[in-house]
Amino acid sequence: MAEINTPEEKSLNFIEEIIEEDLKSGRYKSIITRFPPEPNGYLHIGHASSICLNFGLTKKFPGYTNLRFDDTNPTTEETEYVESIKDDVRWLGFEWKNELYASDYFDQMYAFAVKLIEKGLAYVDDSTSDQIAAMKGSPTEPGKDSPFRTRSVEENLDLFTRMKNGEFPDGSRTLRAKIDMAHVNMLMRDPVLYRIKHAHHHRTGDKWCIYPMYDMAHGQSDSIENVTHSICTLEFVPHRELYDWLIEKLEIYPSHQYEFARRNLSYTVTSKRKLLQLVNEKYVSGWDDPRMPTISGLRRAGYTPESIREFCTRIGIAKRDNMIDVSLLEFCVREHLNKIALRRMVVFDPVKVVLTNYPADGSFEIVKSEDNPEDPNTTHREIPFSRELYIEREDFMENPPKKFFRLAPGQMVRLKSAYIIKCDEVVKDSNGKITELHCTYIPESKSNADTSGIHVKGTLHWVSVAQAISVEVRLYDRLFKVENPSSEEGDFKDYINPNSLQTITTAYAEPALRNIRFADRCQFLRKGYFCLDKDTSEEKMVFNRTVTLKDTWAKEAKKA
Ligand code: ATP
Ligand code: MG
């Protein structure tokens, strides 16, 4: 990761350069940006990049950022999404100046449309959408004028009023801008501005049965709010001409549109439409399933806002669409969690160790261990140590290969923050399964007071059987088996990783894990970073693995 610049070293990105120039030249004294989500789904990591950009600009330069819900499409939008979007932006650490809704401007937008009609720049078209498409032409061929293009201003005003009044059925008429059916930019060939849709809107209810199209709503909302720099993704480059045309003809505040590349993340999909399919078809437990690339999914998985902001800073902004390796996101969260996580020991698949030279009267002692060795002021937790312990089954081998530094017959290891033990005897049941390891501990080898003179290469995590608490652990892996499921042949859902969730219902944890709260982050020693899941109940604590300690996928790639 050495090639990645730290934020301080980074120079201004191209949008920051534009803004700096605009402020220097006196074009603006301060700037206004907006984050404009359509409330038709939960925000994902791509949106985080847009949020960090828009809000980041007004942290860096004088001005402010609005949160505007682009809610002009009545059929796909819901209040649940509005609430989740607000939660996510706040959780990421940003506060908007105004909470705004494009639907609040429906009256104004209607007046804008009337103004265009009055100026002879818009007309009501009775063609169907298929007929309109057929008359569009192609990039190499001009389109054809609609037979309704020459209607009088009076007739257009009358028909548009009646469209608004609900006299016509869905799809029977549209309002179109009168620009140029031979324009080189296909979007300028008399684009549709308004359509009829008898649908209930989540905020305006049944007041409207005509709704503005994206181009008739977005720039106008920007202008109404005096947005100086309207930032969107590259697919809107061809729309900029129409954006400017409408502002010019309406003689309203000149907002300007700037475009940057969409951010896509490997091994997942970043499209609300596709994410909705995963939710509806139950491939995941919901929008906040920890395997989802949604902000709420990442939050539930244990990601921190700091790590996501750091990720967005590191990827910066680009002018060409590209795929970001998910391991960079994982790297960012690992780096942050290493600094803040409380260390705890949890055994996932136990085998019992009996220390034959430790008192058998049920007594135990307390050893202390650092909550976080990365923190110079770390606190310590108390861990009970006794005659019967659990270690991880995979940390023992009866016939180990060379360089196996964990436990084996006759071999010694250190138990973290406690003693060195030696394995003397393996006990098996009638099926040959190992049930117990009989070991002796070296009383002089206690951590921090070791006078044994013995050096061992392996250190294992462990828990004391009598005091262990049982917890559930959910281990997540990438949701897709391939880097870019959307570009593969067939349906993107054919590439779902069938092993993306492994649940361990009974893992054994040291008792200090009981004090963990939802805001805490843990490192389960040698296992990964974990956080408490909302499914936790009085009876059972449930933990999600945020990320492994190392990049296990990189290891796989090297092996292959
Ligand atoms: P989706 O295709 O996932 O539905 P969208 O672009 O339709 O995304 P909006 O709610 O319209 O979603 O987006 C709000 C803002 O976030 C827009 O300015 C949009 O350009 C930006 N945005 C959306 N997806 C990405 C992405 N992958 N990378 C960067 N910015 C994005
Ligand atoms: Mg959209």
TrEMBL record:
Q: What is its EC number?
A: 6.1.1.18
What PROSITE patterns does its record include?
AA_TRNA_LIGASE_I
Where's the Glutamyl/glutaminyl-tRNA synthetase class Ib anti-codon binding domain? Answer: 341-441
Q: What class of enzyme is it?
A: ligase
| GO cellular component, as recorded | cytosol
The alphabetized UniProt keywords are: Aminoacyl-tRNA synthetase, ATP-binding, Cytoplasm, Ligase, Nucleotide-binding, Protein biosynthesis
Where, by residue number, is the motif 'HIGH' region? 37-47
Q: Which InterPro entries does this UniProt record tie to the protein?
A: aa-tRNA-synth_I_CS, Gln-tRNA-synth, Gln/Glu-tRNA_Ligase, Gln_tRNA_ligase_bac, Glu/Gln-tRNA-synth, Glu/Gln-tRNA-synth_Ib_cat-dom, Glu/Gln-tRNA-synth_Ib_codon-bd, Rbsml_bL25/Gln-tRNA_synth_N
Which Gene Ontology terms describe the biological processes this protein takes part in? glutaminyl-tRNA aminoacylation; glutamyl-tRNA aminoacylation
Domain tRNA synthetases class I (E and Q) anti-codon binding: start-end pairs: 459-533
Which residues of this UniProt protein bind L-glutamine? Answer: D70, Y214
Domain (Glutamyl/glutaminyl-tRNA synthetase class Ib catalytic): residue spans on this chain:
31-338
Q: Quick one: where is this thing mainly located?
A: cytoplasm
Q: Which residues are recorded as binding ATP? A: E38, P39, N40, T233
Tell me if Amino-acid biosynthesis is a UniProt keyword of this record. Answer: no
Localization of this protein: Cytoplasm
Task: Give the reaction(s) catalysed.
Answer: tRNA(Gln) + L-glutamine + ATP = L-glutaminyl-tRNA(Gln) + AMP + diphosphate
The listed location of motif 'KMSKS' region is 269-273
What GO molecular function annotation could you give as one example from this UniProt entry? Answer: glutamine-tRNA ligase activity
Subunit organization: Monomer.
Q: Which family does it belong to?
A: Belongs to the class-I aminoacyl-tRNA synthetase family.
The entry's protein name is Glutamine--tRNA ligase
Give the organism, scientific name. Answer: Niastella populi
Q: Which gene encodes it?
A: glnS
